[in-house]
Amino acid sequence: MGESVEAPVAQPGRDAVSNASRKGDQSRQRILEAALVEFGAAGFKSTTTRRIAERANTTLPPLSYYFGNKEGLYRACAEEIVERYGHATRDAVTRAKGVIESPSGPEEARETLKYLMAASVELILGSDAYILGNGIIARELAEPGPAFEIFYNRLWLPGIERNSRLISLIKSEAQVSAETRMQAILLVSSLPSLHTRRVVAQRAMEWPRIGEAELRLITQVLHRQIDDL
Asked: Does the pTM of the predicted model rise above 0.85?
């Protein structure tokens, strides 16, 4: 006779908790995705939690359970945007941190800044991750609200600091100068500005769309600007 194979022992209590947890995670994420769309389209003040719940195909109690209130949900959207951006540029940011902490010379800093900007081009102009969060970011820039400090402290300021340090290394400065910091701000701001005005840019460039060839040209132009630093 062959060896008997024991079937896995069912654990109803733990399995039920696990299933409930998964369903809870899915429900929370569905509400978050709906909020990203609604807040991006109408802003914090004009968007209602009822409208978000309807888009998420749920009711108000789950929204209150996971996020507390409308402001809590809005802040969660900002955190989600920051997380997605961080995930999309993780390799480039890690490389930049390594060069800043253990610099080996201007040329390495220059190539690292180019790599970082290429990743930013892909994120801001070539991916859906940025498009989904852009509405909320644009509104926070025009009229700072509950998410402004999250974006400033976790997204914008770190980007400025990172680019400032790399440019300072390229220029072999003893410390970051005011001119270098402004160069970093302009560099960080250029791509979001281009995204906001992409309709104008496409028309001026006679581009029906921004595809791979267009992204390559934008990256090349940025790289030449970095070469001129």
From this structure: no
